[in-house]
Prior knowledge:
Two copies of one chain form a homodimer.
Chain A: H1 12-35, E1 40-46, H2 52-60, E2 68-72, H3 78-81, H4 87-91, E3 99-103, H5 106-115, H6 121-140, E4 144-151, H7 154-166, H8 176-183, H9 185-198, E5 206-210, H10 214-237, H11 277-300, E6 305-311, H12 317-325, E7 333-337, H13 343-346, H14 352-355, E8 364-368, H15 377-380, H16 386-390, H17 392-406, E9 409-416, H18 419-431, H19 441-448, H20 450-463, E10 471-475, H21 479-500
Parallel strand pairs in A: 1-3, 1-4, 2-3, 4-5, 6-8, 6-9, 7-8, 9-10
Amino acid sequence: MLELIEQKKTKKTDAAEELSSMRAQLIDIANAAKSAKLPVIITFDGWAAAGKGSQIAKLIKYMDPRFYNVEPIRKPNEPEKRKPWMHRYWLKLPAGGEFLILDGSWYSDIVKSYMNGDIDKEEYKRRIADINVFERQLHDDGYLIIKLFLHITQGEQRKRLKALYEDKFTRWRVDEQDFINNKRYDKIFRRYDKTISRTNTASAPWNIIPANDRVTAELEIMRAVTSSITGACDAKAKGKPYKMPAQFPITDIEPLKFDLVRTVKLAKTDMNKELTDEEYRTALDKYQSRLFELQNLCYQRKIPVIVAYEGWDAGGKGGNIKRVASALDPRGYEVKPIAAPEPSELARHYLWRFWKRLENDGHFTIFDRTWYGRVMVEPIEKITPQARADMAYREINEFEYQLNEWGAVVIKFWINIDKDEQYRRFKERENTPSKQWKITDEDWRNREKWDEYEKAVDRMIKLTSTDFAPWTVIEGNDKKYARIKALKTICDRLEERLKDD
Amino acid sequence: MLELIEQKKTKKTDAAEELSSMRAQLIDIANAAKSAKLPVIITFDGWAAAGKGSQIAKLIKYMDPRFYNVEPIRKPNEPEKRKPWMHRYWLKLPAGGEFLILDGSWYSDIVKSYMNGDIDKEEYKRRIADINVFERQLHDDGYLIIKLFLHITQGEQRKRLKALYEDKFTRWRVDEQDFINNKRYDKIFRRYDKTISRTNTASAPWNIIPANDRVTAELEIMRAVTSSITGACDAKAKGKPYKMPAQFPITDIEPLKFDLVRTVKLAKTDMNKELTDEEYRTALDKYQSRLFELQNLCYQRKIPVIVAYEGWDAGGKGGNIKRVASALDPRGYEVKPIAAPEPSELARHYLWRFWKRLENDGHFTIFDRTWYGRVMVEPIEKITPQARADMAYREINEFEYQLNEWGAVVIKFWINIDKDEQYRRFKERENTPSKQWKITDEDWRNREKWDEYEKAVDRMIKLTSTDFAPWTVIEGNDKKYARIKALKTICDRLEERLKDD
């Protein structure tokens, strides 16, 4: 698409009126976005010396600095390398009403990594798919993503690099690599062009900005920004999703296809499984020592391990997690209890709070309740409309796929007990002073919706048991059996993963 | 003090009963801490091969893994080096009811840094002072800090290091440096000993654990942990501060003394200062370009800049910040609007949310409202008892001192307007549709307490105008004058700082 871009020249005087009207408008628009709680991401990519920095400065000059954050994207640092590659972008997500402005983005990130040989073609392609997923997920959640590519020609770039180099105040901004890259402009051109056309989606179409002339560039950037924020605010006011007009025909993205494994309904679970004390103690010893060794190997090979616990109230999650945790070197895991989201979490994409809780590679992250609240408690308790919750099956599969791609072993447990057993445990909690804090009216209320929950859980297990992140239903009426099954499942999954390495 | 520690041998059978009773107790104690929302920090320091890791494992074996987090403390990584040295410890603070267990702590951090020659004696001493401030601030806020030092003799250490080295499964855990350090045991002994005696404070006294014998060590650790958590919960139930019994005579800490600069009361401010449009435009140009250059120098020399804005409602903070921000390279600053704290913030020391908002060295962090809410709005609105708020003057001076020590330039503005001017601006906001969102009933309510606020502000300015972080009262009736004064003050402070370098 880049070859279709025509470099234009705009006289300052011709642009003056439109620019000053758009600048005035921008202040109101930013206020409107603030009131509408619209989260906005503006990415600036483009050639070295294309003027990203100064165009960003021109854009924000008319905005309230409390509403935006400008972040330069450089090479990932050491801690960032120990997380999924998109983790750092997730962390930066703006809240509703805020602007995130990126100088460089996931695009310059992957193009540079690929051109430098840091990632191979396969990885580059996987990352393109990750980006499309990321942008679609954000768009579906009401984010406005304005992607700008500042395009200059090879001759213009050479001229600018030379000028920067010849001025002693700006010399530090260019290095030898910039001149080398200018010589291989054609090759980089093709890579940018492919990247842009593969990501010119309906969720986040590209704005290619002819930037040989600075006034033209400013004009086009301001037009793109003001019109799309206005459009998104209007759409939001009408309760409709916003479709940004596309400069070029948009690219249809084939959704990632996931292979689902066969599952059975909770009602078919054999709830009579149990272990004797003797069997339990022997097995506990065996699997705990095995798990400890496996953790060591995962640590050395930097394999991340994600263990997700869901289950009925009083299902025994706490005690189960304890048996797993006590097998592990405590410096290598963290348990994340998931309670109701905080205001800063509610103001962002619902997966944000799980992304930000991920531990480093080589470590275990154990979730006590998870992102699956989205498809269980949230629609049942009318916190999230059913239609919105239904979109989460796909989003969750994508999320877990990206964890898997990062190298993680994703292990998911549903701890199942039957209704009678739950009643027995609730009563026991009520009658044991030291356990009374564990039982609330809410637990009893949830119990009344047992059938509704069971239906939701069956559906969830069916739709999110991918081959890379299958559910394990744990028969939990006997806590001893349940603990051993969890430990054994984790050991088996890790062994399987370590074999592949 | 270390020389007073007697290594004992305890037979497993003799300890069995007490240990198993304490373990059972620990479960209840952890639950009690959870209900009492008591935040607990347990630090494990001591000699290499003293058994920190295995003692931590023994301790947490009986605790619910959802309530604690074990963190190893290693050398700071690159992003951590760009923050104050204690920043990473602040970030890790547990919430009320949580346990933070550290394998190594700020103690091993400074002793190792000093012994390796990474920091000199002056810096080591400053850090001792920082630690005492940190622990006192946390203690005063209701944190329980249990500091354990696992002490083994030189001979025992040599034996253990050899054993670890000779086993191929554990060889990786020891390196040459460990053996070198064993040879210079005496020197390290003296450093640990001095460190311990200088930080054996009433807020956080030391527990020195004789660790040649593992059973003795476990017993002593369990005693220290169970008794102090019980004591702290009991004290909290009675609404009293907890004083941990000290193993050795405690060290009195000389409070940091700060030189205060002379200040004047708000009532004495000359509110007639103003600039013509002409004067304003000329000065704006001048100081904005100067600020841009100074930012560049600060960036190159990695000088952090903290700008704190406080002022009357409708004082013009937003527009003032905008003039500062628009002079800066947007990649080098961030504006942090401070609103009401979130639940996770309320559950921790109130300075936590400001520590975690600090940008890297070389960057500007601009706070729109600040930690001074603690001594203004919080006591006036009865969010914090006056007595508790009064402690904040010292805490805030210490906080700013630590920022200054990090190398930061700390600039604080009170934007002052008079009561008539505020009335005029409130009315104007009410009558201008695009500004109506800026005025709420709360603003009118606060206005009724003008005198109370003025008294609090006078006191705040008087008590926290240190020579390293003085307040600048800005005459704000004329917005133009106010903006130029802020810009000029920032420029002057930066120039002064850059001269020193």
